[in-house]
Every structure is written in C-alpha cells, then in structure tokens.
DNA sequence: CTAGGGTTAG
C-alpha cells in the first residue's frame, strides 16, 4: 500500500527549502518557528507511529534499545522525533555513545527529521567520547537546519574541551559565548566552566567567575558550591579551611549541601587523615535527612585504610549490607589496596576471590593493585601468574601494569626476567614507552650490570625512543656508584647537548660521586653549576660537602661554609 | 526528549 502524502506536507517542504536557501540568514528565529509549525502539522496526520510513546523504563539494556529502535524505524508513518530523542538519550545514559551516534547517523540517512534536541544529544555523545571536534562540526548542521544551539549544546562542548585538557580553547569558547551572546549564560554553563577551571588547577579563575555570578542575575546553586569546595579540597595544597568558610557562605545564602556536597567533604577529611571527623560529617548528613550512598562508604573505607585502621574499614564494608548497599568495584579495590599497602596480601587475595564469587569482575585497577602487593611481598611467581590470569579473563594490561611488572621483577632481583618481559612487550608490537626502559636500566644499574644498562641505553634510538631526564639520571647514577665519573660526566654532557636539563637529583649524584673519589675540585664545579641553575644540594650531599671542606680548609669556620654552600638553607 | 558537582591503583 502506498502512503498518501498530505498536501500540506508537500507545501511545508517547499517552504522549508525556500526559507533555508533565501531567508534563513536574515531570520533564523522566524525560520525556526515556521519549521516547527509545519513539522507538528505533518505529524498530526500520522496514524500508527504517531501514537507510539516510548517508555525508556521498559527498555532493558542496549540490545533491547536497539530492537525498539528497529521497531520504530519500521513503523509507517514513523513515531515523532521526540520518541527517537528519548531513545537516543537513553542509549547515551547506558554509556553507549558510539551506538547512539551510529543511530543518529542512520536516522539522518533515513531522512527521519531531527530536532535541536536530537542535535544536542549527538553533540553531547561526541563530547563524552572525547571527540569534541566532531561535536563542533555538528554546529554547522544546526544552522543548516535552522536551529540555534543553546546552552545545552555548548556546555557539553565546554566540558569536552576541559576534559581533553584544552583549557585555553575552553576559556576562549566561553569568552566567545559571552561576547557574541551565543547562548544563555545559565548556572549550568557557569558550573561547567568553574569545574573545568578547578580541575585544570586554576582555582583563582574559577572563583573570579563565581564572584561574577554572585553579582549577576545567575545565582550559584548547590552544584556551584560543591564544585568549588571540591576544587579547594583537591587543590595542590589542600585548602580545607577555605572550603569550610565557603560552606558557611553557602549556608548563609540559603543554598544547602546535598549528598554530593557531603561526599566531597567526607572524602577530603578522609584524605587529610581526619577520618573520625569524616564520620562526624556523615552523622550530620544523616541528621539532615541526606542518605549516604556507596560513595560515602567507599570514601570512609579509604580513609580508614589510609590510617591503617583495617578493622574499621572492614566494619564499614560489612555495614553496607544492612543498608542494602551492594559493594561495588570501588569498594573492593579500596579495601584490596588498603590490605596491600598494609602488607596483608592474603586478606587482599581473599577479597579478590570473593569478588569473583559475587560475580563482580576485577578491573585493571584491581589487578595492578594486587600485582604491586604481590611484588612487595616478594611473591614474584604469583605475580607472574596473576599477570597471565588477567589476560586470560580478558582484562587488558595497561601502561601501569607493565611498569609494575618490570619494576616488581627488578626489585626482587629478577632483572633478567624483566628484560625478557621487555622483549615480549617489544614483540607484541605494543606502544613502547621510555618508562619501561628507565625501569630496566635502573634495575640493571642497581644489579651492577652496567654494561647491559649501557647497551640498553644505546639501543633506545633504534627503537624510536628518546631518553628522558630519568633515563640519563639512571645511567649517571649507575656510573657514579661504580666510581666511573668520566662516563657519568659524558652522559651529563650528552643530555645537555640534547637540551635535556639535568635535575637536582642528577647534580647531587655527581657531586657525591666526585666527593667520594676525593676529587673536590670537580665536586665544587658541579656544585656551583647546580646552584647557578637554581637547584640546591640535598641534605646528604650538603653534609658531605661541609665535612670534607671543614677537614681540608681548617681556616673556614662553619659559618663561612654555610655561606659558601648553602646560603639559602636555613635548616643548618 | 538535550547540558554542570562526589569514591580506588600507578
């Protein structure tokens, strides 16, 4: 049976074409209105699909969503855009952005009309998948279709830029939004930028924006305060006192903390070692009818573990059951990490097996944590087995897994095994990283296998790798320890030629190396060079310097020597 | 039907 196209639908398509080619640039708003008017009109004549209302609550997982989508596409006429939007949005919430984007593309190919909502969902999907530039390219489509991107479109773009460490571009976009009035400056846009700035370490700029908000018509809400409190708590030097003041300011403005605000504070206290205070805050939150969730308990557990109060951590873990909260992968990883750090590896292993029994799959964090724990406990064989096991169950090792393996093997006297491991990595055609070689070179030097270290070091360029300051440092330290100062000096010269600046660690090693050999003139030269470069000797180098010069130059008083070698060091 | 804040290893 052929579908009869209603006359007014044809008419609306003509208008659409005409407006989009001639009038759009002058009258985008008018265009939108006309477009929307006719879209609704055309839908009103639909029969089967028009009545279809999607209830995402009935969708069970991705496959279900996909079959619903197929059903919707087959309907004639098709359900309205809104139902497609609901479905797409639901798929994004299932964290299946790539699927959502394929469907979005298919919808376009099938000629199913999309709305500004569909477009925003697509932009957001791209941003979540770290493909912000594709998100930006969709902005062009907005205009083609006669839509105007809104704050809802721009906030994911801003967030995506920040997440990709493109802080300058994010700030530029924000400035552009403000100066060209691209969209409404609402609390969500501010929140996105403030959070991005805090996470980029620019708390000062975040607060500037916050004060701008306060003065303007857009009042900060719980999200904004939580973001800033979190920013203060996680600033390089934690600023808990300021966070406390901000919390008071927040209450004064009658903005009240919610679950996430409390979780931020609880976590910050735990990380400061104030887990008992964190417990107090948890009690206060309950008094305020805010119910703790799994993240609250996970933070508390971590807090106890940091204080080596494993029994208390365990109590929190077990108390979750009574609150019908099921421990998640974080809960297990936190407790496993606690036990590993506390050298209670068997407890950690027990939990590891328990999670499998409960149907909870260990992730790469779990494996990395336990691998480290096993190596710390000198259980190399078990670690090697676990490394194989993780691959058997399909958990891909990452950069840190490989570092753990190499480092663990070296530290346990299995440098040769580490080298074999490194060979395997090379053969696998993995992305090689200079860190792998730094660990191996350091291991070889510490094992006194300087020739092997040198050979590995020399092979780096052929592998397409550049030594970094750590590589040079390992070699220099290796030579110094063997008293081979000429070689150490050569490496130092080499790195300078490659414009790799020696750090204070390297200078300290060299100065101590020359002092140990009694070559005081050389030691003094490098000491001077270090100071010239704004670096200072560490405690043990300084002690050696002072002792030696004191015995050699009796006429120097201690005061003179301090003036000479550590003018800025007030400790001595 | 679209957008912002919180927990683990290295």
UniProtKB/TrEMBL annotation:
Superkingdom in the source lineage: Eukaryota
GO annotation, cellular component aspect: chloroplast
Repeat positions for PPR: 150-184, 186-220, 221-257, 258-292, 293-327, 328-362, 363-397, 398-432, 433-467, 468-502, 503-537
Alphabetical UniProt keywords: Repeat
SUPFAM superfamilies named among the record's database cross-references: HCP-like
GO terms, biological process: chloroplast-nucleus signaling pathway; mitochondria-nucleus signaling pathway
PANTHER family referenced in this protein's UniProt entry, alphabetically: PPR_LONG DOMAIN-CONTAINING PROTEIN (PTHR47936), TETRATRICOPEPTIDE-LIKE HELICAL DOMAIN SUPERFAMILY (PTHR47936:SF7)
NCBIfam families: PPR
Family: Belongs to the PPR family. P subfamily.
Protein name: Pentatricopeptide repeat-containing protein At1g62680, mitochondrial isoform X2
């Amino acid at each position: 049976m052929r579908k009869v196209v209603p006359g007014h639908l044809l008419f609306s398509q003509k208008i659409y074409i005409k407006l989009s080619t001639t009038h759009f640039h002058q009258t985008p708003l008018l265009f939108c209105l006309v477009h929307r008017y006719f879209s609704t009109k055309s839908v009103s004549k639909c029969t089967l699909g028009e009545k279809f209302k999607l209830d995402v609550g009935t969708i069970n997982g991705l496959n279900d969503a996909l079959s619903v989508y197929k059903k919707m596409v087959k309907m004639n006429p098709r359900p309205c855009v809104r139902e497609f939007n609901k479905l797409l949005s639901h798929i994004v919430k299932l964290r299946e952005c790539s699927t959502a984007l394929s469907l979005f593309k298919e919808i376009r190919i099938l000629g199913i009309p999309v709305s500004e909502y569909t477009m925003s969902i697509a932009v957001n999907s791209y941003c979540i998948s770290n493909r912000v530039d594709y998100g930006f390219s969709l902005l062009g489509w907005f205009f083609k279709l006669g839509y105007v991107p809104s704050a809802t479109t721009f906030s994911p773009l801003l967030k995506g830029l920040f997440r990709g460490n493109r802080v300058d571009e994010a700030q530029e976009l924000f400035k552009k939004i403000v100066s060209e009035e691209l969209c409404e400056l609402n609390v969500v846009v501010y929140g996105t930028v403030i959070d991005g700035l805090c996470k980029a370490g620019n708390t000062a700029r975040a607060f500037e924006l916050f004060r701008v908000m306060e003065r303007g018509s857009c009042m900060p809400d719980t999200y904004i305060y939580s973001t800033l409190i979190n920013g203060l708590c996680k600033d390089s030097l934690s600023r808990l006192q300021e966070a406390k003041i901000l919390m008071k300011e927040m209450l004064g403005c009658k903005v009240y903390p919610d679950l996430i605000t409390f979780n931020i504070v609880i976590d910050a206290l735990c990380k400061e070692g104030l887990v008992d205070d964190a417990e107090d805050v948890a009690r206060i939150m309950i008094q305020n009818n805010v119910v703790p969730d799994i993240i609250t308990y996970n933070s508390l557990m971590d807090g106890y573990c940091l204080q080596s109060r494993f029994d208390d951590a365990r109590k929190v873990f077990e108390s979750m059951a009574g609150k019908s909260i099921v421990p998640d992968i974080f809960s297990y990883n936190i407790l496993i990490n606690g036990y590993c750090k506390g050298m209670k590896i068997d407890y950690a292993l027990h939990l590891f097996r328990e999670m499998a029994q409960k149907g909870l799959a260990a992730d790469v964090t779990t494996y990395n944590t336990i691998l480290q724990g096993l190596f710390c406990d000198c259980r190399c064989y078990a670690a090697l087995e676990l490394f194989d096991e993780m691959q058997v169950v399909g958990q891909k090792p990452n950069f840190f897994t490989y570092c753990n393996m190499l480092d663990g093997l070296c530290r346990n006297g299995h440098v040769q095994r580490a080298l074999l491991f490194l060979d395997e990595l090379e053969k696998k055609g993995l992305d090689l990283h200079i860190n792998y070689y730094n660990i191996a070179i350091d291991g070889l030097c510490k094992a006194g296998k300087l020739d092997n270290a040198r050979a590995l070091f020399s092979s780096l360029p052929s592998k397409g790798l550049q030594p970094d300051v750590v590589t040079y440092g390992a070699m220099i330290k290796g030579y110094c320890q063997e008293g081979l100062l000429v070689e150490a000096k050569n490496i130092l010269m080499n790195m300078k030629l490659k414009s790799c600046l020696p750090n204070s660690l390297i200078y300290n090693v060299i100065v101590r190396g020359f002092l140990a050999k009694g070559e005081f003139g050389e030691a003094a030269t490098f000491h001077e060079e270090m100071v010239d470069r704004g670096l200072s000797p560490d405690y043990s180098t300084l002690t050696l310097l002072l002792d030696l010069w004191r015995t050699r130059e009796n006429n120097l008083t201690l005061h003179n020597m301090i003036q000479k070698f550590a003018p800025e060091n007030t400790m001595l």
